[in-house]
Specification:
Helix content is 39%, strand content 26%. It contains twelve helices and 16 strands. A hairpin with a 2-residue loop joins strand 7 (186-194) and strand 8. The protein starts with a strand and ends with a strand.
Length: 375
């Protein structure tokens, strides 16, 4: 078990699992999922809650998944349990524990739990990432920022971990949603698990840093930037008029085109932000486009930021992202044949001309560039 007390990360013995359970039982006593699964309160409610939380914590401990915690005077006061990306077969001892737990809690509790799990699985984020299973603080230490410290520790672990695109979590308490959004999370799914229980899946993507740029997901707050970019004369000439003429339309473009791609594919077009000014300079990213077998690299810069090498810097970064994180062995790019500026960027990024193509429902010839296997 890994206990994160801010900095540095310390390793504790798995025997502290009982302390982890103590913290989470205190924090989740009234949580909607626990109340739904366990049913009406009774004289043995504390015992049943502890049994359920012990099962959840054991799933992480027996699989050696990271558990983050904060101490105060040697006592754990805040805990976050996580699941790393990939397949994680349960060890045999967990199956025995699981069977014993549900035999004690009853068939009704198991049915209610599986009902929620089915919804979680249906809305799970598709790409490799860390998932926070439970995050809780003792009520005696609530509202002191300990939960946020753990969120930041998990995010930093995601940034350091190869082939991981961010951190996800779910909440069934609507009051938690704005708090997570304030910490950088985005709601990517909202579903009703039961007649009385809703769930929100939230995701915080890792930012992609280069020497001079930060590439991040677009948000509706970027609407003024997109309104300017999509109405630039070169955008309209080389890419096309998207009909985005108002801030409302720009917000719709972000939601319908960019956010939809992030949620469906895990990637999309990112906003490139200049360091240290914080100004958005353009967009660059990976696009799953109808009519192309391979993922497409795309970019566009605002006029006042051209000629600084930002397009090439961003393109190289997203190509590395495609290969290293998303496992894309081949990448392509398309451009109008007379767009010499874009062609220079593509060639310097390692893509070479292959042939002329037309996309579905398009009467314009495009030059296809590519790199990687299976050309």
């Amino acid at each position: 078990m890994t206990i994160n007390t801010g900095t540095p990360v310390l390793d504790f013995r798995a025997t502290r699992g009982d302390e982890v359970v103590d913290v989470l039982c205190d924090a989740f006593r009234d949580y909607p999922v626990m109340r739904h699964v366990l049913g009406a309160r009774g004289p043995d409610d504390d015992r049943r809650l502890r049994r359920l939380v012990h099962l959840f914590v054991s799933a992480r401990l027996l699989s050696a998944h990271p558990i983050y915690a904060i101490e105060d005077a040697g006592r754990l006061i805040a805990v976050g349990t996580t699941t790393p990306p990939g397949e994680h077969p349960r060890p045999p001892e967990f199956q025995a524990l699981r069977d014993a737990t549900w035999a004690e809690l009853g068939a009704g509790a198991l049915t209610r739990y599986e009902e929620i799990v089915a919804v979680w699985e249906a809305v799970a984020f598709p790409e490799p990432h860390l998932h926070i299973n439970m995050l809780g603080t003792r009520r005696s230490h609530a509202e002191r920022g300990y939960g946020r410290r753990i969120l930041e520790a998990v995010q930093e672990a995601s940034r350091r971990r190869p082939a991981t695109v961010g951190v996800s979590l779910t909440t069934e308490d609507p009051n938690n949603v704005p708090m997570y959004e304030h910490c950088g999370y985005r709601v990517i799914h909202h579903a009703r698990a039961t007649e009385s229980l809703e769930t929100w899946l939230l995701f915080r993507p890792n930012e992609l840093d280069t020497d001079r740029l930060t590439l991040r997901w677009a948000t509706e707050a970027d609407a003024p930037f997109f309104l300017e970019l999509l109405n630039d004369a070169d955008w309209i000439r080389y890419i096309g008029d998207r009909g985005v003429k108002t801030l409302e339309a720009a917000r719709g473009y972000v939601a319908d085109k960019l956010t939809a791609s992030y949620v469906k594919h895990g990637f999309g077009l990112y906003v490139a932000v200049e360091k240290p000014s914080g100004d958005p300079v353009g967009i660059c990213g990976l696009i799953r486009r109808a009519g192309l077998e391979d993922v497409d690299v795309g970019f566009a810069m605002l006029p006042r930021f051209r000629g600084k090498g930002y397009a090439l810097e961003a393109t190289r970064a997203v190509m590395d992202l495609g290969r290293d994180v998303f496992g894309l062995r081949r990448l392509v790019a398309i451009t109008i044949p007379d767009n010499r500026g874009s062609i220079r960027v593509l060639e310097r990024a390692g893509l070479t001309y292959e042939r002329t193509i037309r996309l579905p429902d398009d009467d314009c010839d495009l030059a296809l560039y590519g790199c990687g296997a299976d050309r």
